[in-house]
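Regression test case RT-17, inverse folding.

Input:
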């Protein structure tokens, strides 16, 4: 359980919020394989980066990421 990413301010807060939040249930399913990781929206990239990190940690050979939308900074 983590706070909603949308309620957090800044990249660092979002990265810290998801650090260690995910685990691979069946690691043997990804070991040595290329995995396609899909996320509906990427804002800072914290969530998809953490998921990719976990997949690589349990043995995925490569993680390719795709998304439908990317938020842009309005500054």
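Golden output:
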């Amino acid at each position: 359980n983590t706070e909603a990413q949308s309620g957090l301010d800044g990249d660092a807060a979002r990265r810290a919020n998801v650090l260690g939040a995910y685990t691979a249930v069946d690691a043997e399913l990804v070991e040595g394989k290329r995995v396609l990781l899909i996320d509906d929206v990427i804002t800072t990239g914290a969530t998809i980066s953490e998921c990719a990190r976990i997949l690589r940690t349990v043995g995925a050979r490569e993680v390719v990421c795709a998304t439908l939308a990317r938020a842009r900074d309005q500054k």
